[in-house]
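Long-time lurker, first post.

We've been arguing in lab meeting about whether fe (ii) ion would sit comfortably in this protein at all. Half the group thinks yes, half thinks no, and nobody has a model to point at. So I'm putting the question to the forum: if I give you the sequence and the SMILES, can you give me back a predicted structure of the complex? Inputs are below. Any interpretation is welcome too.
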Amino acid sequence: MTQYSTAQNPCSDNVILNQWHAIAALEDTGRNPHRTRLLGEDLIYYLDGDDVVVSRASGERAGPGLPVHCDYGYIWTCLGQPEKPLFDMPEYHEADRRNVCAASVGVRVSAPRAVENFLDMGHFPYVHTGILGEVPHTEVREYDVELDLEKDEVLATRCRFYQPQAAAGATGGMLTEYIYRVPHPYCSILYKSCPDDESRFDVIALFVQPVDEENIRAHALVSVIDAHSASIDIRMFQQTIFGQDKPILENQVPKKLPLDPRAETPIRADKSAVFYRRWLSQKGITYGVIPAAA
Ligand SMILES: [Fe+2]
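Top reply:
Settle the argument with this. Predicted structure of the protein with fe (ii) ion, as tokens:
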């Protein structure tokens, strides 16, 4: 198991404790117990017949069971009391989609930093050069962001960006349209133009497992309308993107996300980040962030 050097502070943030968090791809889970860490606590998970068991680790043994929910290809659990069902992502269940658990990557950064990076189109030409962007197409065009109070999520729409290779199945450059949802403090869903069907969107979801305040495992689900690409190519495409993001994320200082609006200068590309930070502040989240001074 990965060793984490950061001193462990138990999570006292009830908003985060009461969320469902993804811990592993269901397809990677078997009868042999595996260990992982969530919010600074060691967990064991395994299959018992058709059931998934997740529990706190007590030495080498499993302790009392935790709540389990399996959806979107991943195992989700909660260390507190789940206050509401996991967010809705109906596209996953459409019959003609390819759903691929594409990656689970350890990164030394806080969960909110990873979500914010996922929302940021401005880094595409510089970090994902030749794939999600390229010089001189560096402009982030005007887009809309709102806080959907009914659904309790941040929504960014009308995002457009020129991409040389928007997806594993893309055969040339295209002006890609994006919609971002942030329906969970540590998860985001991206809808982007589908190279195979102009009327629909491909979906890439980021489920961030907060290992502790400054370490994560980033789980990616790719849900695409693509009859041609091999699953391994869909996986390799997403892992290439993650591999480019990982060193950028690990060099961010501070590792926690500052919520004070004056902490880091916003630019247009950061408009969704401004809403995301404000939403975290309104929720009173303290884990993985540097709260704004009262
Ligand atoms: Fe990126």
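For your lab meeting: Residues 117, 123, 127-128, 245 surround fe (ii) ion (CB under 6 Å). The first strand starts at residue 21 and ends at 25. Whichever side wins, do check it experimentally.
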